[in-house]
């Protein structure tokens, strides 16, 4: 088996997902592979009742995965973590879409041969809105998936 050439890792900015980013960065560095860090986000929409309800119930932080600026900040910070862990070539991608569909699309477009996700990322209402990313990508991915144990 040859070493991985392109590794894709998803992040939502949580400490749990950053653990997966650091592991992916170390692995990409060890394999001399390109690392693509992905953050999916939802476009801000005034008529999105679910997001407004989450903000009303839980405060503004409940929808931090909404809009491009937080997503771009997330991938920028994650890239710094990945480089510190050993990654060489790092690409940052912030894309409008659901996490699962976005990750699978980026894997295809980047011609990746490994997808890395944490075993747990989103909590609470955000998880209920977006679903289980690790379970869904593991089931649907056409490439190897590394699920990093990221919780206590």
UniProtKB/TrEMBL annotation:
CDD domains: USP-like. InterPro entries: Rossmann-like_a/b/a_fold, Universal_stress_UspA, UspA. Pfam families: Usp. Residues 4-149 form the UspA domain. It comes from the Bacteria. SUPFAM superfamilies: Adenine nucleotide alpha hydrolases-like. Residues 53-75 are annotated as: Disordered. Belongs to the universal stress protein A family. This is UspA domain protein. It comes from Geodermatophilus obscurus (strain ATCC 25078 / DSM 43160 / JCM 3152 / CCUG 61914 / KCC A-0152 / KCTC 9177 / NBRC 13315 / NRRL B-3577 / G-20).
